[in-house]
Amino acid sequence: MNFLLKRGGLAAGIVAVSATAIVVCAAAGSEAQRRAAQEHCPAGALVLPGNGVARAAKAALASAAADYPTLKTTGAVVVSARRATSAGPRGVQVARECGTRARARTAVVQLRFPRMAPSASLAEGVVDVSRFSNGYRVWAVVH
Q1: What is the DSSP letter of 122?
Q2: Rounded distance, CA 96 to CA 46, Å?
Q3: Which residues contact 137 (CB under 8 A, 6 or more apart)?
Q4: Could you tell me which residues come within 8 angstroms of residue 106 by beta carbon, excluding any fewer than 6 positions away?
Q5: What SS3 string covers 34-96?
Q6: Do 86 and 107 touch, CB atoms closer than 8 A?
Q7: Is the pTM of this model over 0.70?
Q8: CA 8, CA 33: separation in Å to the nearest integer?
């Protein structure tokens, strides 16, 4: 710290220390996020059959109240349900956090909660659903 103070003054020393702290925190945060994501990944997910996306959508609706306990989920509807491999950025997110195998075995389901309108954010939900040996299950609430 004394070297920084002598060379660039107090302000330069604070900026250098702050920048280092930010880089260290960002790196630690990224690693922590990666580890947390891997812990929630769908270990044991099975291949989705032809009707897997429809069954995943039904599972998402059935578990909406449990997945969104603070929202009014009565009357929830499925807006979109797609295999994660063709679900755009949400599917890419599954691959980035859990790998391509998980992506290939996951459906991304977008829900709408009409009773939460007019709040656009609260009226929408997105979940990742996979098939397991005991049935279809939501393994991540994304939004």
Answers
A1: T
A2: 19
A3: 59, 63, 129, 130
A4: 42, 45, 48, 83, 84, 91, 94, 98, 128, 129, 130, 139
A5: HHHHHHHCCCCCECCCCCHHHHHHHHHHHCHHHHCCCCCCCCCEEEEEEEHHHCCHHHHHHHH
A6: no
A7: yes
A8: 35
Tokens of 48: 């989705």
Handedness of CA 27, 30, 36, 37 (dihedral sign): negative
Region of residue 118 (left: phi > 0; alpha: psi -120 to 50; beta: else):
alpha
81 class by beta-carbon count within 10 Å (0-12 exposed, 13-18 middle, 19+ buried): buried
Structure tokens at 43: 């270990």
- DSSP three-state, residue 123: coil
Helix then strand then coil, % of the chain, to nearest 5: 50, 20, 25
Per residue in 66-123, pLDDT (tens digit) is 999 999 999 999 999 999 999 999 999 999 999 999 999 999 999 999 999 999 999 9
Residue 57, Cβ density class (10 Å: 0-12 exposed, 13-18 middle, ≥19 buried): buried
